[in-house]
Amino acid sequence: MAFIEIEHLEKTFQSKSGDTEALRDVSFSIEQGEIFGVIGLSGAGKSTLVRCINLLEKPSGGRVIIDGRELMKLSDSKLRLARREIGMIFQHFNLLMQRTVLDNVCFPMEIAGIRKREAREKALNYLEQVGLSDKASAYPAQLSGGQKQRVAIARVLASKPRILLCDEATSALDPQTTQSILRLLRQINEKYRITMVVITHEMRVVEQICDRVAVLEYGRIVETGRTREVFDEPKTEAARRLIYTREYTDIESEGSGI
Ligand SMILES: Nc1ncnc2c1ncn2[C@@H]1O[C@H](COP(=O)(O)OP(=O)(O)OP(=O)(O)O)[C@@H](O)[C@H]1O
Ligand SMILES: [Mg+2]
Questions:
Q1: Nearest residue (CA) to ligand 1, atom 25
Q2: CATH number assigned to the domain comprising residue 176
Q3: 44 in ligand 1 pocket by Cβ < 6 Å?
Q4: Is the beta carbon of 47 within 6 A of some atom in ligand 1?
Q5: What atom in ligand 1 is closest to the CA of residue 11?
Q6: Ligand nearest to the CA of 20
Q7: Structural domain includes residue 150
Q8: pLDDT tens-digit series, residues 43-102
Q9: Residues 11 and 80 placed together within one structural domain of the fold
Q10: Which atom in ligand 1 lies closest to the alpha carbon of residue 216?
């Protein structure tokens, strides 16, 4: 059995204006240490999918099995423990603006009941690993987007996750900063063997760090395979469309640089 097994996952949102089937019979598996990408157009269900992996969103059907444990069958206390092993980073960083960088990184350790001094020591170590030692006493508002994401990464490392879910983690960053964050994620993946799920609409991100990729369209996985193979020879119209869009974007951004 793979480290992460998603089986027949369904998610329907109910509202007065009608039901939205955000996920339809989604199944795939991810090996430990793998970096797995999920691509799809806006509204395809990418965020819903990652939120279902850590049960931030309750699936309407199907199973999420992590390291042999079916999350929806766990007691509340066991689920809390299981979720601690799943970290998440976001497009807009989600830092605590009233706290310093150091205190942001200390936060998950405080919640876990680690003593203040020990937490500070560990936090400084994580900040060093993300290259932000000199910003420990700064506030998030004083940082660039890339630096903010580094703080978020240091904070997530402090909770010692075995899985890291990245929802558009580089989408608010310029291409060069994106590169540096991707390099950092790669290092972390290798050093701590953290399994990563990378949700993005940026094809370059997938090409650069994902071992495998799944293409989501209208809540269904229509294609999945090794990144190189899917990019070189997309089999579905949905994948082709995403990959061609990448090329158009390249042309546009070259043009606008003049
Ligand atoms: N809380 C919610 N209530 C109702 N509908 C929702 C909710 N969250 C998501 N949806 C719907 O589910 C579908 C999938 O949304 P989701 O946010 O997962 O897409 P996405 O692929 O992450 O898009 P984007 O690339 O724009 O972030 C959309 O039709 C969306 O409107
Ligand atoms: Mg989304």
A1: 42
A2: 3.40.50.300
A3: yes
A4: yes
A5: 12
A6: 1
A7: yes
A8: 999 999 999 999 999 999 999 999 999 999 999 999 998 999 999 999 999 999 999 999
A9: yes
A10: 21
Asked if residue 222 and residue 167 are part of one domain, the reply reads yes
Ion ligand 2 — residues with CB < 5 Å: 46-47
> Closest Cα to atom 30, ligand 1: which residue?
43
Structural domain span for residue 235: 4-85+163-256
Using the mean position of ligand 2's atoms as its centre, give its distance from the Cα of residue 39 in Å: 10
Question: Which is it for strands 69-70 and 4-15: parallel, antiparallel or unpaired?
Answer: unpaired
pTM metric for this prediction: 0.93
pLDDT confidence of residue 255: 45
